[in-house]
């Protein structure tokens, strides 16, 4: 492969005489870069596999204990129901772990043009699910600030997973009586290389405990979590999804004052509708 750089040829007094073009054989550099990427991916998969083995061991232990008790002939009906509930819960947990692991290891191919989706029903559904899950323990107020007619270029399931992970984190970080804000707006831009594309901005903000700078640097690492019941895969999946769609994610964390996640997702339009 051949690389080149172009620079103006000028005199000390600034007079332009021409242009200098330098060509360079970058075949070996590209090969090294490819090898480094492969090694980085293998290292990441090794960390994922080790973390997955650790996370699977806990629900398997719970299920094994419950099944051993169910094998006893004199198990009371009430206890049997509780044990079955434990088994179902842990099976659901395993299924979630595997879904997230598969997405991290082999994300779905994204087409150049996607059918736009309305984010409002997905956000409303997520809020309903979070209320049914947490209202018994927390009195969280949800605030929506969604621009009318804004549309996202994503598979709906991917957006649902993204919003669920971010809003669940926000709820779990919020004190009783806290507030979680969801804002979605269009008319922004995202730059990738030399191409500028229209994008949609998605923000999820809480006013909870916030995070330290060291924690912020680790939150997207697979299996890193500050929650007792967290798997540490939620934000890793969020980052992987956003990057897979060509977007970016920013975190503004203030210790003791809350956290803001800001995501920019490009609008995947036809080639002749993009700005270059």
Give short descriptive properties of this protein:
single chain, about 280 residues, alpha+beta, 5-stranded mixed beta sheet, two-stranded antiparallel ribbon, 6 helices, globular
Tertiary shape: globular
Helical element count? 6
Number of strands: 7
| Main beta sheet strand tally, sense and closure | 5 strands, mixed
Report, as a whole number of angstroms, the end-to-end distance: 25 Å
Residues in helix, %: 40-55%
What percent strand?
15-25%
User: Which consecutive residue ranges, at least 5 long each, have pLDDT under 50?
Assistant: 271-276
Average pLDDT confidence is 78
Secondary-structure element order, N to C: EEHHHEHEEHHEE
Write the layout of secondary structure elements.
Layout lengths: L1 E9 L5 E10 L1 H44 L6 H29 L13 H16 L6 E6 L9 H18 L5 E14 L2 E12 L6 H4 L17 H11 L3 E7 L3 E9 L10
Helix pairs in contact: 1-2, 2-6, 3-4, 4-6
Account of the 3D structure:
- The protein is α+β, with helices and mostly antiparallel strands and 276 residues long.
- It has helices spanning 27-70, 77-105, 119-134, 156-173, 213-216, 234-244, and strands spanning 2-10, 16-25, 141-146, 179-192, 195-206, 248-254, 258-266.
- It has 6 helices and 7 strands.
- Helix 1 runs antiparallel to helix 2 and helix 3 (119-134) packs parallel to helix 4.
């Amino acid at each position: 492969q051949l690389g080149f750089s172009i620079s103006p040829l000028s005199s000390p007094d600034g007079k332009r005489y021409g242009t200098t073009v330098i060509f360079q054989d970058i075949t070996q550099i590209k090969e090294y870069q490819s090898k480094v990427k492969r090694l980085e991916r293998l290292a990441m998969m090794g960390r994922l596999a080790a973390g997955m083995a650790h996370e699977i061991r806990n629900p398997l232990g719970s299920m094994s204990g419950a099944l051993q008790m169910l094998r006893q002939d004199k198990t009371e009906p009430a206890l049997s129901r509780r044990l079955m509930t434990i088994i179902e819960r842990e099976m659901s947990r395993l299924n979630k772990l595997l879904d997230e692991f598969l997405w991290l290891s082999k994300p779905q191919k994204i087409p150049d043009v996607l059918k736009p989706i309305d984010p409002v029903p997905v956000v409303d559904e997520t809020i309903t699910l979070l209320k049914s899950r947490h209202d018994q323990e927390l009195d969280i107020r949800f605030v929506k600030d969604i621009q009318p007619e804004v549309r996202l270029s994503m598979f709906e399931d991917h957006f649902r997973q993204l919003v669920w992970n971010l809003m669940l984190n926000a709820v779990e970080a919020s004190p009783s009586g806290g507030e979680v804000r969801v804002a979605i707006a269009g008319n922004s831009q995202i730059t990738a290389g030399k191409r500028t594309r229209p994008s949609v901005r998605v923000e999820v903000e809480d006013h909870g405990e916030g995070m330290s700078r060291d924690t912020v640097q680790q939150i997207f690492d697979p299996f890193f979590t500050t929650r007792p019941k967290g798997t540490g895969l939620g934000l890793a999946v969020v980052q992987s999804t956003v990057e897979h769609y060509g977007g970016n994610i920013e975190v503004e964390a203030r210790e003791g004052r809350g956290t803001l996640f800001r995501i920019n997702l490009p609008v995947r339009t036809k080639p002749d509708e993009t700005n270059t």
